[in-house]
Amino acid sequence: MAPIAVGDVVPDGSISFFDENDQLQTVSVHSLAAGKKVILFGVPGAFTPTCSMKHVPGFIEKAEELKSKGVDEIICFSVNDPFVMKAWGKTYPENKHVKFVADGSGEYTKLLGLELDLKDKGLGVRSRRFALLIDNLKVTVANVESGGEFTVSSADDILKAL
User: Fold this and answer.
1) Helix or strand holding residue 131 (H, E)
2) Confidence category of residue 21, pLDDT binned at 50, 70, 90
3) Does residue 119 carry a pLDDT above 80?
4) Which residue from 5, 13, 14, 102 lies 20 to 30 Å from 26 (Cα-Cα)?
5) Catalytic site residues?
6) Taking a C-beta distance cutoff of 8 angstroms, is the pair 50, 136 a contact?
7) Secondary structure class of 20 (helix, strand, coil)
């Protein structure tokens, strides 16, 4: 499947997260993004070095600025279970705006066409690193990394596009 691209409507699919009341929620992506401007950024793995020290902190640090430019939701996405994503999110006590969501079986990642085969590293099939800007379900920016790179999907890259 071809990777998601600018002009595409994001596919609908289910993702899971723990809400502010610590209740597990499984919702459709369309229910989170319809009528909103949303950043969906994907990482290959929770607790991994580049994801934990660069990618996620950038979105947390720039969240207020992104919101001031009309972004309604900032969603961190990974092929992990919701318990891992919840635990990872808690390692950022300063976070007020980034929602950590799980694609437990990688089904939504597959719908996006953004799978990354890391079986040789013992990680299975994960998500490529990416950042999408979605406006009312339509992709307006699709910054997708090659391999393990981190060159086009940062919060600063999305800010430049807003």
Assistant:
1) strand 130-135
2) very high
3) no
4) 5
5) 51
6) no
7) coil
Nearest to 54 by CA among 157, 137, 123: 157
Sheet holding 24-28, edge to edge: 24-28, 14-18, 98-102, 73-78, 37-43, 130-135, 138-144
Give the contacts of 41 (CB within 8 A, at least 6 positions apart): 55, 59, 74, 75, 76, 77, 130, 131, 132, 153, 158
- Rounded to whole angstroms, the Cα distance separating 5 from 90 reads 31
Torsion, Cα 2 138 142 107, to 10 degrees, reads: -50
Per DSSP, the three-state class of 63 is: helix
Q: How do residues 58-103 score in pLDDT, each as one tens digit?
A: 999 999 999 999 999 999 999 999 999 999 999 999 999 999 999 9
The DSSP 8-state label assigned to residue 121 in this structure reads G
Residue with tokens 């307006």: 140
Using a 10 angstrom Cβ sphere, with 0-12 exposed, 13-18 middle and 19 or more buried, the burial of residue 44 is: buried
Report the C-alpha gap between 34 and 67 in whole angstroms: 17
Domains defined along the chain, listed by start = 8-161 (3.40.30.10)
Could you tell me the pLDDT band of residue 127, with boundaries at 50, 70 and 90?
confident
Collapse the DSSP code of 83 into the 3-class scheme (helix H, G, I; strand E, B; otherwise coil) and give the result.
helix
* 102, 84 Cβ separation under 8 angstroms: yes
